[in-house]
UniProtKB/TrEMBL annotation:
<keyword id="KW-0119">Carbohydrate metabolism</keyword>
<dbReference type="Pfam" id="PF01370">
    <property type="entry name" value="Epimerase"/>
</dbReference>
<comment type="function">
    <text>Catalyzes the NAD-dependent oxidation of glucose 6-phosphate to 6-phosphogluconolactone.</text>
</comment>
<comment type="pathway">
    <text>Carbohydrate degradation; pentose phosphate pathway.</text>
</comment>
<comment type="similarity">
    <text>Belongs to the NAD(P)-dependent epimerase/dehydratase family.</text>
</comment>
<feature type="binding site">
    <location>
        <position position="150"/>
    </location>
    <ligand>
        <name>NAD(+)</name>
    </ligand>
</feature>
<dbReference type="GO" id="GO:0006006">
    <property type="term" value="P:glucose metabolic process"/>
</dbReference>
<dbReference type="GO" id="GO:0051287">
    <property type="term" value="F:NAD binding"/>
</dbReference>
<protein>
    <recommendedName>
        <fullName>NAD-dependent glucose-6-phosphate dehydrogenase</fullName>
        <ecNumber>1.1.1.388</ecNumber>
    </recommendedName>
</protein>
<dbReference type="InterPro" id="IPR001509">
    <property type="entry name" value="Epimerase_deHydtase"/>
</dbReference>
<feature type="compositionally biased region" description="Acidic residues">
    <location>
        <begin position="246"/>
        <end position="261"/>
    </location>
</feature>
<dbReference type="InterPro" id="IPR036291">
    <property type="entry name" value="NAD(P)-bd_dom_sf"/>
</dbReference>
<feature type="binding site">
    <location>
        <position position="146"/>
    </location>
    <ligand>
        <name>NAD(+)</name>
    </ligand>
</feature>
<keyword id="KW-0520">NAD</keyword>
<keyword id="KW-0560">Oxidoreductase</keyword>
<feature type="region of interest" description="Disordered">
    <location>
        <begin position="234"/>
        <end position="273"/>
    </location>
</feature>
<keyword id="KW-0313">Glucose metabolism</keyword>
Length: 273
């Protein structure tokens, strides 16, 4: 990709995971409503994606978009997801069409399908000997209003692909944490996405050819209830990490995690804050 790549939500956790490995790979145009908190060699646009005109300006000359900006909180209220995640995402797609952008990678979420995790299936489906898999062909079953907003983003992507031939990949991201998987959290270990796999995955989203796709974005965890076959097939995703490598046998069998933090970091939280 020779043209600039617009990265919305660049200041956030996923954005920083991508930039930590791919900073030199592209001519990035970074966008966030918050100004940069660290030095960057890249152009930085301080803008809110709910500002149509600002998004339109930021899209000028762009070849591809990685769209991450939004409210990532599973408990986010409707007014926030409606504004930031739905209106904002529509603005990004609309501006992409007007600017002649080739492809958009949209950060969807496990919460778009969280309601498949029924009482009958859990916790067994989080374990490595269980073969239940979602593969991206299933209907959304959001587990909260945030998940509804992510499912809506996917549908917007479908519309802009069908109507305008934009290449769109929706990545249902699992749980991104730095250095090691979430502790004491089977579900989080099953849908762990390491930082390097995250960067590699979005690199593939920028480089690969596709029409419209919904894929899962997790590392190659022994525990998994999301198939990454389509992610591999369509994008050429080749994950390097596996949450099992950080866990003892008891943890892998579903008992309480005893942590295998090989970095010395004390990471008590489920996410990478
Ligand atoms: N971190 C994770 O494990 C997962 C993240 N995701 C999705 O990935 C995306 C990024 O998530 P994180 O990096 O974790 O969140 P984050 O909160 O760390 O980063 C989001 C960034 O977007 C910016 N932003 C929010 N609303 C904006 C707006 N209206 N206009 C411009 N900028 C805005 C924020 O300032 C922030 O820098 C989100 O869309 C989230 O739903 C999906 C699944 C899992
Ligand atoms: O979509 C998201 O999912 C991750 C994982 O969900 P959780 O319910 O296991 O915490 C979450 O950490 C992240 O903030 C959110 O954007």
């Amino acid at each position: 990709m020779d043209d600039p790549v617009l990265l919305t939500g660049a200041e956030g956790r996923v954005g920083q995971a991508i930039l930590s490995d791919l900073s030199a790979e592209y001519e990035w145009r970074l966008l966030d409503r918050d100004p940069p908190t660290r030095d960057t060699d890249h152009e930085f646009v301080v803008a809110d994606i709910t500002d149509e005109e600002a998004v339109r300006e930021a899209m000028d000359g762009v070849g591809a978009v990685v769209h991450l900006a939004g409210d990532p909180r599973p408990e986010a209220p409707w007014n926030s997801v409606l504004t930031n995640n739905i209106d904002g995402t529509r603005n990004v797609f609309e501006a992409a069409i007007d600017a002649g952008v080739e492809k958009v990678a949209f950060a969807s979420s496990n919460h778009a399908v969280g309601a498949y995790e029924t009482d009958e299936r859990t916790p067994e489906m989080y374990r490595r000997d269980d073969d239940y898999r979602l593969d991206g062909t299933e209907f959304p079953r959001p587990s909260n209003l945030y998940g509804v907003s992510k499912a809506t983003g996917e549908v917007l992507g479908r519309y802009y692909h069908d109507e305008y031939d934009l290449s769109v990949v929706c990545v249902r991201i699992g749980n991104l944490t730095k250095n090691h998987p979430p502790k004491d959290y089977e579900r989080g270990q099953a849908m762990w996405l390491s930082h390097r796999d995250c960067a590699h995955l979005f690199d593939r989203c920028i480089r690969a050819d596709y029409d419209f796709e919904i894929v899962y974005g997790i590392s190659d965890n022994d525990r998994k209830y999301y198939s990454i076959e389509r992610t591999k097939e369509v994008l050429g995703y080749d994950p390097q990490d596996n949450s099992a490598e950080f866990a003892d046998d008891e943890t892998e069998n579903g008992d309480e995690a005893e942590n295998a933090d090989d970095t010395g970091n004390a990471a008590e939280s489920q996410t990478d804050d």
